[in-house]
Amino acid sequence: MLTLITFLTSCSSVKKLSIFKEEVAREKLNLNTPTPLELENLRWIIITSENADEVFKKLEEQGIDPVLWGLTDKDFELLAKNFARIRNQLVVTNKLLDKYKEYYEPKEKKDE
Amino acid sequence: MGIRLFFIGIILSALLGAGAYVMKLQKDNAILKGNAIKMESAIADQKNLIESQKKDFQEILDANNKMNELVNVLKKDLEDLDKRFNKKNRDVGKLAIAKTKSIERITNGASALATRCIEIASGSPLTEEEKNATKKSEINSECPSIANPNYVPY
Which of A51, B16, B65, B89 is most buried by a 10 A CB count? Predict the structure, then answer.
C-alpha cells in the first residue's frame, strides 16, 4: 500500500502556470476628412445717396427685386474681420487635428 | 560497536547536510543568475522607455512651436486686414462716396479672395498658381499665409 502511494504521488506533477501579456495596438480611428467647402461668390453693391436711384433702376432692369440688405462702412469692416477670425479658427482647428493624428497615429515607415 | 555506529551516523548526517547545503547554494545561485538577467533586461527596457519619452517630449515641443508660429502668422493676416481699412486714417466710407465704382470693384475682388481663403481653410487643395505665387501681384492678399506657401513678404 505504502509503495503504491509513494509511486503514485511521485509521478504526479503540477505544471507551472504561465501568464503573459501581449499589447495589442488600438485600432486607428480613420474618420474621413470632411469635403472642403466650395463657396459661392457674393456681389457687393455700394450705394450712396447719389447713386441710389441708379442702382435700384439697374436692379430692376436686370430683373432683380429692387431691394438691398445694407451695411455701414464700419459694419462692413466688422463683417470682414469676423470672417477672417472664423477662417483663422478653422485653420487652427484643422491644424490641431492634423497634429493630434500625427502624434497618435504616426505614419509607419515604408522601408521596414 | 555502538560508538562506531554512532560516529558513522554522525558522519553520514554531516555528509547529507553538506550535500543539501551545496544543493541549496546551487539553487540560490541559479535564482541569482536569473535575477541578474531580469535586471539587465529591465534596465534595457527602462532605457528604451526613457528614449521613447524623450522623443515624445521633443515631438510635443515641436508641435507646440508649430502651432504658435501658425497663430502668429494668422494674427498678422488679421492685422494686415485692419491696416487695409484704417491705414493712415483711411476712411473707407468717404472713399466709397468719392470713388464708388472703383471701391465696389475692389470690394468684390477682395470678397472673392476672402471666399477662397475660407475654402482653403476648410481643406481645399491649393492650385498650382497659388503654390507658385511669389509676387505681391500674384498672391491672395487676404490670406497669403495659408494660400501662398512660397510667398515671402517684402
Answer: A51
Over residues A61-102, the pLDDT tens digits come to 999 999 999 999 999 999 999 999 999 999 999 999 999 998
For residue A51, what are the contacts with CB-CB under 8 A and spacing of at least 6? B100
What whole-number distance in Å separates Cα of residue A41 and Cα of residue A43?
7
Closest CA to B130 of B115, B148, B117: B148
d(CA A107, CA A101): 9
B74, B115, B124 member nearest A92 (Cβ): B74
Q: Closest Cα to residue B63, out of A8, A103, A80?
A: A103
Contacts of B64 in chain A (CB under 8 A): none
Question: Does the pTM of the predicted model rise above 0.90?
Answer: no
CB contact under 8 A, A34 and B60: no
Report the alpha-carbon distance of residue A84 to residue B122 in Å, rounded: 13
Mutation site for A-interface testing, chosen from B72, B80, B115, B145 by largest number of A Cβ within 10 Å: B115
Segment A9-63, tens digit of pLDDT: 554 456 656 677 778 888 888 888 889 999 999 999 999 999 999 999 999 999 9
Whether residue B93 and residue A73 make contact (CB cut-off 8 A), yes or no, is yes
Distance CA B114, CA B116 (A): 5
